[in-house]
Amino acid sequence: MDFIMNSAPIIGAGAGILALLFAVVLSKRVTAVQPGNERMVEIMESIHTGAMAFLGRQYKTLAIFVVGMAAVIVACGYFVGGMESGLNPKTAIPFLMGALCSVLAGNIGMRIATKANARTANAAMESGMNKALNVAFSGGAVMGMSVVGLGLLGLGVAITLFPGQPDIVNGFSLGASSVALFGRVGGGIYTKAADVGADLVGKVEAGIPEDDPRNPAVIADNVGDNVGDVAGMGSDLFESYVGSIISAIALGASLSIGANGEGVIVPLLLAAWGIVASIIGTFFVRTGEGKNAQKALDAGTYVSTILSIAGTFVICKYVLPETFLDGRYTNTGVFIASVAGLIAGTLIGKITEYYTSGDYKPVKEIAASCETGTATNVISGIATGMTSTAMPIVVICCGIGAAYYFAGLYGIAIAAVGMLSTTGIVVAVDAYGPISDNAGGIAEMAGLDHSVREITDSLDAVGNTTAAIGKGFAIGSAALTALALFSAYTQAAGVESIDIMNPMVVIGLFIGGMLPFLFSAMTMSAVGRSASHMITEVRRQFREIPGLMEGTAKPDYARCVDISTTAALNEMIMPAVLAVAVPLFVGLVLGAEALGGLLSGALVTGVLLAIMMSNAGGAWDNAKKYIEGGHHGGKGSDAHAAAVNGDTVGDPFKDTSGPSINILIKLMTIISLVFVPLFL
Amino acid sequence: MDFIMNSAPIIGAGAGILALLFAVVLSKRVTAVQPGNERMVEIMESIHTGAMAFLGRQYKTLAIFVVGMAAVIVACGYFVGGMESGLNPKTAIPFLMGALCSVLAGNIGMRIATKANARTANAAMESGMNKALNVAFSGGAVMGMSVVGLGLLGLGVAITLFPGQPDIVNGFSLGASSVALFGRVGGGIYTKAADVGADLVGKVEAGIPEDDPRNPAVIADNVGDNVGDVAGMGSDLFESYVGSIISAIALGASLSIGANGEGVIVPLLLAAWGIVASIIGTFFVRTGEGKNAQKALDAGTYVSTILSIAGTFVICKYVLPETFLDGRYTNTGVFIASVAGLIAGTLIGKITEYYTSGDYKPVKEIAASCETGTATNVISGIATGMTSTAMPIVVICCGIGAAYYFAGLYGIAIAAVGMLSTTGIVVAVDAYGPISDNAGGIAEMAGLDHSVREITDSLDAVGNTTAAIGKGFAIGSAALTALALFSAYTQAAGVESIDIMNPMVVIGLFIGGMLPFLFSAMTMSAVGRSASHMITEVRRQFREIPGLMEGTAKPDYARCVDISTTAALNEMIMPAVLAVAVPLFVGLVLGAEALGGLLSGALVTGVLLAIMMSNAGGAWDNAKKYIEGGHHGGKGSDAHAAAVNGDTVGDPFKDTSGPSINILIKLMTIISLVFVPLFL
Questions:
Q1: Which of residues 645 through 664 in chain B touch A, CB cutoff 8 A?
Q2: Distant-in-sequence, close-in-space partners of B342: CB < 8 Å, separation ≥ 6
Q3: Is the pLDDT assigned to residue A1 strictly greater than 60?
Q4: Which A residues 92-151 touch B at CB under 8 Å?
Q5: Which residues of B touch A660 (CB under 8 A)?
Q6: Binary contact (A645, B521; C-beta < 8 A)
Q7: Across B666-674, average pLDDT
Q8: Nearest CA in chain A to B404
Q9: Is A404 within 8 Å of B503 when comparing Cβ atoms?
Q10: In the prediction, which pLDDT does A84 show?
Q11: Cβ separation B390–A607 shorter than 8 A
């Protein structure tokens, strides 16, 4: 027991290293596969180069932001340094570490994902379904393992460097949040600017099919899939992952759970075991020819979940004291809280699937509403998105209620840790999506046999569902993580209460509630402006490059990638300033209680808007696919035209504004937590 | 002084009677005008009969609801009667009075408004602009005077019947809320079902112009304008009006403002003086030929506002003690709080105008986005709606902050009273809109000279702006009223704090925040379903009535009115159940604190969604009008088609779901306030 107590950070770091080693194995497994013929390699290289170019440019802006933020921390640290509970300037160290770990995870994941696409197509051509699934999933799993591996390794090191100083370690979470801001917001703008540009000029104006190599924006579009669903989603869940663990540790310490700090080490142990469970789960992702890839992915997730629950039981039983906090709670209660989080995460995913999959009533009704035109389709989609907020909110409330009932505030943080314990395989399944999507694109562009496209299409179709479920999971985990961080904030602020009967708190609630609306409007408009740059450029290339439409000349792919990148990075300045400046301003001017109101207001409307926008977008997308599947007149019908309009409205909803809100609510909370000494 | 102290309810009732007498004068002024030729009288009678038929049917359902609710109050009253602070069964008496007064106000207002339309058209024909404005505004002012007259008279009587028992008088507000639920939600569904039905089959399918008498839904559509903007808006502001006064009285009593109950009588005096100020203001609404009607309406509003401020100063100075609550606040502070409310109301109206009028940048940008199609128009409109939440929220927060800083919790309720003191003229200006709109329709249907239509069009154009401003004012006043009622609720519940650090409160916040989303989805879908009934019926009449298109046979207007009525009343059952049942359920199961969380969550997201939906809808509407004015290709262009789609999406946003949220947040709060003894 003593051994475990003293070496928990080491165990965490060890599990992190294990995940990274497994990522190396997976990477080798992917790169060992032949990437196919010359044309395929060429396309793959274009996507890979484009993705790396995007990341490179992003790092430059990110570096300015991170260094600036570190300087602010150090400056504030020395400025308020005289006070006992002041902001410790050393917080800048874990901050830089957190940012670096998240950047590294994203870089490794993107590097392999953009190499796995052509190899997936080639595996489909040479060996069939199972091998193709294996390559695509392994590519995704590299991202998953990098996220949890670098997350827990970095956190373990940070805790070892600053033992017993959770306020300093909080910096790690802020670093992760800063990278997530760039990954999700910048990435979200990038991916949709490229997508809209490619679709509007290529498909609509020039009349060439999706993924046609003559389209100058086609590479940017394929890069965008990776930027959004690999790097963006990865950085989002990296943030939630470390945020939930850090808040559980902070609450374990401030509430003094267990006489020997058992409450502090349990989150680390749960996360460490979650990595093992995720690794074991990956081995269950396998399928036969013509079988359903969804089942294979589900099998992996379920195995990981069950293993995680079993391990959680053992850890709670044998590490935690039987009762704590004057006997109010038991170690079984902590186990229940953790399972409540896991179940909530799974349920939210299932509810998301119900509202966004073409197999169920909501999407079918939206498709039917397309028969009376675009307006009814838009209204129907928005109404579905709004309706779809109800069940996830009830699930989240039940999760919070159960966790709190059985283990108090600590239980809420543990529920977040529980939900995120299987992050490794969740990210793997999610990142698998863009890889198969890209594989399909490469098969199309390289003119591979129809049978290959059939396999990649069946892999991609599953990817659409997993993407929607992943978004639901990301929102749910963001909500629980933000709430856990919020609890840590209230403890750190030392306020007695954040009382809604106090009008200052009400003002905070109103302003906080408004921020996700304003933030969403900004990101949505940003997509519009960026896309218009892209449209202009694609039109120019079609006009000025002779032989482009005939296929005798090559378009300038790199320039389109560059335009998306520049636009995305410029457009994210204002939303980023909003997310960073408003909580600091409110905290300094109106105080810690009003800031608490602001955080909870933003949490509530943020979660609601994120669910509404993600689900409406997903539902429109699949209503269009449902019509394309031959319903309501199929492709080319008036209903289809209405459905395409709905899908275009939904694009920034589900891929830019919705997911960006996750970052907003977490980032504002962690900023408040780190800078709380300034507000007292 | 003693005289004022003892007779404040009588003074209030007296001012109410004054307003009603003035309404009689105005009614006579309207009915004295000739309604025009036989055709005009016929159409007017159809609209009038349709409107009265709608009200009649509504009353039957409303009666069931009100009697049921009264029975619940009495039953709960006797059930919890044993306890000291139990729900008093006598609360049912003011409840019934409040419902009756609101119904009466709506009935009188609708009765005159549907008689003023043809008379406005005839006045435009015979005497020109100023007389037409005079008739239309007088018609609207009958509604305005009925609202404030019956509101204050009823309240004065209720207070006289139950002196010193604010918990019983609260029932009056609940009665008003119940009627508002039917007026706003049922009315909102009615008006848009008729509008969409008339537009989609008449204008689009049959290709006949707006307001064409061959369209079977044209009368229902004209009835709908009155149902929405006269009865609906009237019942909404009636609810805010009495709710704000009641909460100020309740807080004045529970906080013991002034040794002799001065805090209790000041709200009544402010409201009474506001009636006088509104009456005087109406005399300033006059214009010359070819002049701008907007300026005339503004003049009336400004005069009332300035008079109201002056009177408020005198009342606060001479009735309130110089300092109160241990010298923490002054009577000047109360005056400032009241003015803060008035200024906030005016500013929110101006901000609404900025975001929804074709004269400013936002609407012009939306119009420009129509050039790239429906999808970009929809995105642009939603982004504008979301952006437009920021400034009103800041204004509301400044209002709350100032009111609280200068006069505490009591100040917040006084701010609401101040904002609503000029309700008489605000409702008059708002109800003027549908009367001029109807006048234009009658001029069109009766084939009057083009010059008449020009006058009515210029009156109607102003009506669009006043409608948007009125909506902004309604939301702002709903927010302040709900907040004031919420303060009264927390006092009545006697909870020490509603602490966001308590996860039960967080659960309340989440559920409350979700309700406006679910409620909006329900009302939006209800419009879709009701409209489809209407569409089927209009198509049937075109198909089955021979000679209809040729103008030789008359359509069955009454049947269309009937279909809208039935659909609206059926469709409002579920949203009504939600609004009534959820707060009761949460209060009973999770307790008074969680219910407090629910109310504030609903308040925050409700206000935000209402602003977003109303402004997006208004902006889309005016973007279409802007294009029809000859920009971006004008009528018949692709941009115009995109704009029409946006306007159709915006219709349920701005006329059904958005305004209905006002009722949701007020109704849930007043239910909680009345039934609070059950939750303790």
A1: 645-646, 648-649, 652
A2: B305, B308, B309, B418, B419, B421, B422
A3: no
A4: none
A5: none
A6: no
A7: 96
A8: A503
A9: yes
A10: 52
A11: no
**Contacts for A221 with CB less than 8 Å, ≥ 6 apart:** A194, A195, A197, A198, A211, A215
Dist. CA A430–CA A235, nearest whole Å: 12
Q: How many CB atoms lie within 10 A of CB A581?
A: 11
Average pLDDT over residues B425-448: 91
- Burial status of residue A6 (CB atoms within 10 A of its CB: 0-12, 13-18, 19 or more): exposed
CB A386 within 8 A of CB B521: yes
Of A372, A374, A506, the CB nearest to B600: A506
**Do B487 and B247 form a contact (C-beta atoms < 8 A)?**
yes
Number of H helices, E strands in chain B: 21, 2
In terms of Cβ atoms closer than 10 Å to its own Cβ (0-12, 13-18, 19+), residue B86 is middle
| Residue B444 host element (H or E) | helix B423-445
The CA distance from A388 to A391, in Å, is: 6
Residue bearing tokens 């949460």: B586
Mean pLDDT of B130-149: 95
- Give this prediction's pTM: 0.95
Q: Which residues of B touch A373 (CB under 8 A)?
A: 645
Given a contact cutoff of 8 angstroms between Cβ atoms, the answer to whether A152 and A275 are in contact is: yes
If contacts are CB pairs under 8 Å, which of residues 609-648 in chain B contact chain A?
Answer: 612, 645-646, 648
Contact between chains at B393 and A487 (C-beta distance less than 8 A): no
| CA–CA dist B16, B7 (Å, integer) | 14
Check CB contact under 8 Å for A380 and B514: no
Please state the ipTM of this predicted complex: 0.95
CA nearest to A150, candidates A9, A304, A308, A17: A17
Q: How far is A133 from chain B (nearest CA, A)?
A: 35
Mean predicted lDDT score pLDDT of chain A = 92
Tell me the pLDDT tens digit for each residue of A377-421. 999 999 999 999 999 999 999 999 999 999 999 999 999 999 999
Q: CA geometry: angle at B189 spanning B183 and B193, to 5°?
A: 140
Contact B507 A389 (CB under 8 A): no
- Nearest Cα neighbor of A520 from A584, A585, A611, A598 is A611
**Residues in chain A closer than 8 A to B525 (CB atoms):** 380, 383
If one compares B81 and B551, the residue with the highest pLDDT of the two is B551
Neighbouring CB atoms inside 10 A of B256's CB total 12
Q: Measured between alpha carbons, how far is A475 from B158 in angstroms, rounded to an integer?
A: 50
Query: Nearest Cβ partner of B649 from A200, A378, A387?
Result: A378
CA distance B617 to chain A (A): 12
Closest-CA distance, A521 to chain B, in angstroms, reads: 4
The shortest CB-CB distance from B383 to any of A498, A503, A525 is to: A525
Looking at chain A, the whole-number percentage of residues with pLDDT higher than 90 is 71
Tell me which of A361, A376, A379, A406 to substitute to probe the interface with B (most B C-beta atoms closer than 10 Å).
Answer: A379
Q: How does B455-467 read in b/e, with b if 16+ C-beta sit within 10 Å?
A: bbbbbbbbbbbbb
pLDDT tens digit sequence for A308-339:
999 999 999 999 989 988 888 999 999 999 99
pLDDT tens sequence across B350-397: 999 999 998 999 999 999 999 988 999 999 999 999 999 999 999 999
Cβ pairs bridging A and B (under 8 Å): 199
Of B640, B660, B531, B423, nearest to B201 by C-alpha is B531
Distance CA B250, CA B234 (A): 24
> Taking CA atoms, what residue in B is nearest to A369?
B528
**Which tens digit of pLDDT belongs to each residue from B238-276?**
999 999 999 999 899 888 888 888 899 999 999 999 999
CB contact under 8 A, B509 and A607: no
Tell me: the pLDDT tens digits for B11-53? Answer: 999 999 999 999 999 999 999 999 999 999 999 999 999 999 9
